[in-house]
């Protein structure tokens, strides 16, 4: 056997061995970045997916920016944690690499306090912890107006700063905090505006312990599954979305989260008509 033939056989065996180490694309595990508070939902979906031959790997994140960078960079196949408004406000160099696959739920926002049992007990000059993310901050202002703690200027649409506060009769101080640290701040502030996941981490029952919960359920507050732009029409991703956006998943969310998460199921095209 000459040297050329030996080399050819070696190359053929090497190629075949490398190829056999990869699963067919349809069987490749989908890695999804999620919130820890959503884990029970995704475990429910993962079980259904496994029964249909679709394997999911769940990775928890507490930092939104890290999860989007991991997705854009190829370390994740999808993530499911951010609201429509947060997605729309992503830096252009990140956002252009991603696309919304579809929506999951809307989050109920509430005012919580370790110090006070009722809204009327919040004292003059109290410190209220609020989210620093723009859309969540605007929603917090709406909620405090619903609670009767302040009045907003006419025409407030949910974006803006404290300049949009018309009347603050209790002279409240708003302390902005990142989502990552919100639950810690909530333990020491007079009160805090928290999402369901933040309230849970701070030791509250999302529904029973809220002094008030928001009735505002605008599209901006709906959460979504994001994928890389080139994968939005991928058959496996569409199957994943269908498994999530099913009647039994909706029933699971309603039972498990007792109204603090509201299932909202829209396909990815719902954002295509929005202006940048």
List keywords for this structure.
globular; 276 residues; six-stranded mixed β-sheet; D-Maltodextrin-Binding Protein, domain 2; five-stranded mixed β-sheet; alpha/beta; 2 domains
Topology overview:
Layout: H1 3-20, E1 30-34, H2 39-51, E2 56-60, H3 64-72, E3 78-83, H4 84-88, H5 92-95, E4 98-107, E5 110-112, E6 127-131, H6 134-146, E7 151-152, E8 165-167, E9 173-177, H7 179-185, E10 191-194, H8 196-201, E11 212-213, E12 222-228, H9 235-244, H10 247-257, E13 261-263
Parallel strand pairs: 1-2, 1-3, 6-9, 6-10
Antiparallel strand pairs: 3-12, 4-12, 4-13, 5-10, 5-11, 7-8
Helix pairs in contact: 2-10
If you had to describe this structure to a student in words, what would you say it looks like?
The chain is an alpha/beta fold. The protein folds into two domains: 24-107 and 219-271, D-Maltodextrin-Binding Protein, domain 2 (3-Layer(aba) Sandwich), CATH 3.40.190; 110-213, Periplasmic binding protein-like II (D-Maltodextrin-Binding Protein, domain 2). It is 35% helix and 22% strand. Strand 1 (30-34), helix 2 and strand 2 (56-60) form a beta-alpha-beta unit. Helix 2 packs antiparallel against helix 10. This is MetQ/NlpA family ABC transporter substrate-binding protein.
